[in-house]
Design goal:
It is built from 5 helices and no strands. It is an all-alpha fold and about 130 residues long.
């Protein structure tokens, strides 16, 4: 990395914060008092991009952790809908489809992750097979 994150100016940090709050590039530039052109020049700098990605990753991890925490409740809700006698059959079928689809997707991601870990282990230790 040729530029260090510590070399970001306070305005560059505020632009990153504005973008991570969901502002458009135009809104972020206006918030900080710079032109859009300057914003895009800054986004072309490695240090700014890295910090934006780093902070975005932290936010994404927090969101994922919250979603994982709510997953059990979501499954319980779908289960209640699936079993409820007073819920229309169409809603129960939809609940069943959602459960099956999401379970399949979760399993595929889990399996893919395990395969990637195995490949990374092989690449890290090519002498072991």
């Amino acid at each position: 990395m040729s530029e260090k994150v510590t070399e970001l100016t306070p305005r560059q940090r505020r632009v990153i914060e504005a973008l991570l709050e969901g502002k458009t590039p135009k809104e972020a530039a206006e918030t900080v008092g710079i032109s859009r052109k300057t914003l895009y020049v800054w986004l072309g700098k490695e240090a700014v991009r890295e910090e934006l990605n780093r902070q975005g990753g932290i936010i994404l991890e927090e969101v994922i952790n919250r979603m994982v925490g709510l997953a059990s409740e979501a499954v319980e809700t779908m289960s209640k809908i699936l079993k409820a006698k007073d819920v229309p059959i169409g809603n129960q079928i939809q609940a069943a489809n959602v459960i099956l689809k999401r379970t399949t997707e979760a399993w595929e991601l889990y399996s893919l992750n395990k395969r990637v870990e195995a490949l990374e282990a092989l690449l890290a230790n090519p002498d072991k097979e």
